[in-house]
Design brief:
With about 375 residues, the chain is α/β, with parallel strands linked by helices. It has four domains: about 1-45; about 50-100, Beta Barrel (OB fold (Dihydrolipoamide Acetyltransferase, E2P)); about 110-290, 3-Layer(aba) Sandwich (Rossmann fold); about 300-380, Helicase, Ruva Protein, domain 3. It contains twelve helices and 13 strands. The strands form three sheets. It has a six-stranded mixed sheet. A five-stranded antiparallel sheet has the order 3-2-1-4-5, with no helix packed on it. A two-stranded parallel sheet has the order 12-13. The model is unreliable at about 375-380 (pLDDT under 50).
């Protein structure tokens, strides 16, 4: 009896040791894999980073590349890198600049950082005091997009674009969005100053990509705000930054004239400083329709004010007096008056707006304008 018990105990001990050995071997294998993985990670982190460049030209088994600072080099191409073409993005070794492999970047990767793409919902009924300007922008932008056959039947080519100029806040951007909505077009808004890049050639490349995007999303409207930052009168000598602005400007002109027709892409330039624009951008065949968007007159003030107060509750308001008080205000300032008057009502815990609220709002806006120290009315006559 004791002999059998001793044999069973021995078997249990041997089984326990055997199980422990298997567990230890498995644990040892996992630890080795973890160590190998960590070593590989360390080796990977120690590997020098590759630099992204652009292929300018392919020469037999070699290539001419452009590095980010604008310099160009004649380099070798790896045997594993096939079917390279000019314009491709590649990864190169930083020491000898030889091409390691192609980098498949997404098309237009830079554009999304600098443009606003939207389908506007604003319509012309929401714009007051700009009857003449609305008519002109409809003729230049809306009609060619909606009824191109009219121009074909007459035998003329519609204008490629339009320039809106005038003081800030008079409705230039809203006009562009309204015509985009009327034509069911994609509205691509660009700020001129954002097109000027740090490195040589980057601004011109960005302009090219913006127009490629516009063609893909046609019908589309490219709205260039502050175009004077890009299209100011050129000078013979200047800093490298000024020369880069000129390169970008030349690319813009090339896109407007372009070998590739703009088709259902229209351009709307916008500026507060028409006087400093380069004549090249507003010559016939480019942004040749010039539309002045001035400060609203008395009738315009009435129309704009009625648009912004339509959802407001007013009590004992003398409209004629308000119109006179707002003489010289832009559309944006008239909207600001309504908003500010609403704040005065909220502070007094009221749901309606009084004459006093509106007068106080007008006075506040006039005080802010005086502090700005810039007379837009006299500037634009």
């Amino acid at each position: 009896m004791s002999s059998n018990s001793g044999g069973e105990d021995l078997s249990n001990v041997m089984f326990s040791y055997s199980t422990n050995i298997h567990e230890l071997e498995e644990e040892n294998r996992i630890l080795k894999e973890t160590v190998n993985h960590l070593r590989n990670e360390i080796d990977r982190f120690r590997t020098p980073p590759l630099m992204m460049c652009e292929v300018r030209e392919i020469v037999d088994k070699n290539a001419i590349i452009r590095v980010p600072n604008g310099n160009q080099f004649f380099v070798c191409v790896s045997d594993t890198c096939h079917n390279l073409a000019a314009g491709d993005a590649v990864l190169v070794d930083q020491k000898n600049l030889n091409i390691i492999r192609r980098f498949n970047k997404t098309k237009g990767f830079n554009v999304e950082k600098f443009v606003i793409i939207e389908k506007p919902k604003i319509n012309f009924e929401e714009i007051g005091g700009l009857v003449k300007q609305i008519r002109e922008i409809k003729e230049v932008v809306e009609l060619p997009l909606i009824k191109p056959h009219l121009f074909k039947n007459v035998g003329i080519t519609p204008p490629k674009g339009i320039l809106l100029y005038g003081p800030p806040g008079t409705g230039k951007t809203i006009l562009g969005k309204a015509v985009a909505n009327a034509t069911n077009s994609t509205f691509i808004e660009v700020v001129g100053s954002e097109l000027v890049q740090k490195f040589i050639g980057e601004g011109a490349k960005l302009v090219k990509e913006i127009f490629e995007l516009a063609r893909e999303k046609a019908p589309s409207i490219v709205f260039i705000d502050e175009i004077d930052a890009l299209a100011a009168k050129r000078i013979d000598v200047g800093t490298s930054g000024e020369r880069e602005v000129q390169r970008t400007f030349m690319q813009l002109l090339a896109e407007i004239d372009g070998f590739e027709p703009l088709g259902n892409v229209k351009i709307i330039g916008c500026t507060n400083r028409r006087d400093i624009l380069d004549p090249a951008v507003i010559r016939p065949g480019r942004l040749d329709r010039l539309v002045h968007v001035p400060l609203p007159d008395e009738d315009g003030i009435k129309e704009i004010f009625k648009i912004h107060i339509k959802n407001m509750k007013l009590k004992e308001v003398d409209f004629e007096k308000l119109y006179k008080e707002m003489d010289g205000f832009s559309g944006a300032e008239i909207k600001a008056v309504c908003t500010e008057a609403g704040y005065f009502a909220i502070r007094d815990d009221r749901v309606y707006i009084t004459q006093e609220d509106l007068i106080k709002a007008i006075e506040k806006l006039r005080e802010d304008d005086e502090n700005d120290g810039f007379d837009y009315v006299n500037m634009f006559g």
